[in-house]
Inverse folding.
């Protein structure tokens, strides 16, 4: 009995120690990060803000992909690792439409450019939505009652299949897209420059993100999605077609991936078979960082990662550099999972408490 009591007291002391030390370490790290940002801002405020605009643009792009992850996880609790590759195929669809169908070139007229972008966007959204729904029907639906590791492995397998499809279609090299977006400054004030190609990316993504949040919160189909996410059996008893709702969710997530693929191809000017793997990992991290299953959380996480990436790669004073970006992003993810597993905006559930 005495030994048991002594062990219990030791465990309590360890828990008490960790409950004080770990938050203190996290607070110190955040304070050091803020101090580093403040010093860089003081050394060059105009340059700091310009780099921040790049982070905003990248974060908006990551948000399009992160929302697809969080939509699917929210309704099925499935991490769809093939989603990044659907995004990659969306970029290849868009590049093909722009170059082979609309025959765009760098000096195309504004009207032709707008028509080509809108047409390519619609095709990419439709193609990726149908592809994503087909993946759900063929690969995920038969495994709904299986242990969670089975659909997870299937998702990884689908990711490799889609990459092989892209290699067979376009080859292992980059598919280049000519510089179609205007690159002149929107404004240049006190050394702060904001260019058109960055604004256009935000102008495409911001309405899509706002429309999605409105759709899920306000429409009948959105309510069916939320009801299915909360309790599939109860939703079915209330007359909701669960299979159709899940398929629609995959279509919606695929459409977002297609939009992201078009924006990426236009902004970065090239895309290849493994782009989805790289961007998908970042977007998945953003979804977890913000609180996977939470739409505003996915957007917040994506913007934070966009800023982290741009500041790390762009700031000049004691920045680790681009080689360390992924290490920094995933280190932050680990810290979030340790201190707040539900993410920044996620809600703590009884299972995770």
């Amino acid at each position: 009995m005495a030994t048991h009591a002594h062990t219990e007291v030791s465990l309590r002391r360890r828990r008490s120690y960790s409950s004080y030390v770990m938050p203190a370490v996290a607070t110190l790290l955040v304070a050091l990060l803020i101090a580093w940002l403040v010093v860089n801002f003081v050394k060059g405020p105009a340059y700091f803000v310009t780099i921040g605009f790049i982070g905003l643009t990248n974060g908006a792009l990551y948000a399009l992909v992160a929302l697809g992850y969080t939509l699917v996880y929210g309704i099925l609790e499935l991490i769809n690792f093939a989603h990044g590759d659907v995004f990659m195929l969306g970029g290849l669809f868009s590049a093909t439409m722009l170059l082979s169908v609309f025959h765009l070139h760098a000096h195309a007229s504004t009207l032709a450019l707008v028509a080509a972008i809108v047409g390519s966007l619609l095709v990419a959204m439709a193609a990726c939505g149908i592809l994503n729904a087909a993946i759900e029907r063929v690969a995920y639906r038969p495994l709904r009652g299986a242990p969670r590791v089975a659909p997870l492995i299937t998702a990884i397998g689908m990711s490799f299949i889609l990459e092989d499809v892209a290699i067979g279609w376009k080859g292992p090299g980059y598919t280049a897209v000519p510089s179609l977006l205007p690159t002149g400054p929107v404004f240049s004030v006190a050394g702060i420059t904001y260019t058109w190609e960055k604004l256009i990316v935000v102008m495409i993504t911001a309405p899509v993100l706002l429309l999605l949040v409105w759709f899920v919160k306000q429409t009948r189909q959105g309510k069916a999605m939320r009801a299915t996410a909360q309790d599939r059996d109860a939703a079915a008893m209330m007359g909701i077609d669960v299979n159709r709702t899940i398929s629609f969710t995959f279509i919606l997530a695929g459409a977002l991936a297609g939009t992201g693929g078009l924006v990426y191809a236009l902004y970065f000017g090239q895309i290849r078979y493994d782009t989805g793997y790289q961007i998908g990992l970042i977007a998945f991290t953003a979804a977890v960082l913000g609180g996977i299953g939470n739409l505003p959380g996915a957007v917040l996480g994506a913007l934070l990662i966009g800023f982290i990436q741009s500041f790390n790669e762009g700031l000049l004073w004691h920045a680790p550099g681009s080689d360390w970006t992924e290490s920094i992003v995933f280190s932050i993810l680990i810290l979030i999972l340790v201190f707040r597993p539900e993410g920044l905006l996620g809600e703590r559930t009884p299972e995770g408490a």
